[in-house]
Amino acid sequence: MDASLRQPLAAPVIPIGADAGTGPVLRALAADAVAAVALQGVSWGPKGQDDILTDISFAVPVGQIVAVCGANGAGKSSLLRLIYRHHAPRRGEVRLMGQDLWKMGADAAARQVAAVLQDTPGELDLTVRQIVALGRLPHRRGWGAGFARPEAGAAVEAALERMDLAALADRRFATLSGGERQRAMVARALAQEPRVIVLDEPTNHLDIRHQLDLLHLLRGLGLTVIASLHDLTLAAGFADRVLVLHGGRLFADGPPAAALDEAVLAEAFRVRAVVDRSGPRPRFSFHL
Ligand SMILES: Nc1ncnc2c1ncn2[C@@H]1O[C@H](COP(=O)(O)OP(=O)(O)OP(=O)(O)O)[C@@H](O)[C@H]1O
């Protein structure tokens, strides 16, 4: 494998804030921009156990669309949990819009970063509209007061509309299909009006039309998007940049054609891959 792919390469490395420390990612930074998300030397593992993620550093510019790829158990969900403030790093630092994620409150973080997760609680006895309205929670002032404000209702209705859920808004969430639930969870994230949206396998449960629709919509939001994806063809078609995790380390980082080359795929996924580069985006075929 091209040795340069082992380190963050073509994707721009940008500052994570004026007071941002001195690690190699930070020293290489241009002067003025603030990264939407930046990790510097981050390691994480469950309490009392070895690291699952080791020494991860990258910075995501505002508005970039990033796919996180890697084999089962490579650490994709764990990495996303660090970004949406579910896991605190064991070492290193996670910054959101230039601020240390763990020095801001949970609500302040949730006003900036929304997460769409793989397993949605189907047993909740709430309607789709009520589920989507939960996205307004970080914006409430005092107990529940934010829900009553007209802009809260408008954000919820806009999110329902955007995810093509208006007709299902009064249905009980528990009665939805897997794909409809997934769209409702994306609508909840949109109602949150975040700057960064993190999605763990967002195309799970979606038929091919809804997969393409969702990725197209995510690209059109004008937000910073970080999504784990198993389907490398979708990742290559959707993302500006691909992070490949392997054994809990950042193994490749770059535009799809560079980060998803044959040598990376052979090592990170233990498959032989043929990459067809004849079109605008790479296409893959795989063999054992
Ligand atoms: N809280 C935890 N306690 C113990 N082990 C954990 C914990 N969280 C993750 N792991 C382990 O860390 C490794 C990485 O898990 P993670 O869910 O991040 O991988 P992934 O790349 O998202 O995998 P997949 O593609 O299968 O969803 C796995 O071996 C998993 O079992």
From TrEMBL:
Gene3D superfamilies: P-loop containing nucleotide triphosphate hydrolases. Residues 37-272 form the ABC transporter domain. One of its GO terms (molecular function) is ATP binding. Pfam families: ABC_tran. The keyword Oxidoreductase does not apply. InterPro entries: AAA+_ATPase (IPR003593), ABC_transporter-like_ATP-bd (IPR003439), ABC_transporter-like_CS (IPR017871), P-loop_NTPase (IPR027417). Keywords: ATP-binding, Nucleotide-binding. Signal peptide: none annotated. Coiled coil: none annotated. PANTHER family: ABC TRANSPORTER ATP-BINDING PROTEIN, HEMIN IMPORT ATP-BINDING PROTEIN HMUV. This is ABC transporter ATP-binding protein. It comes from Fuscovulum ytuae.
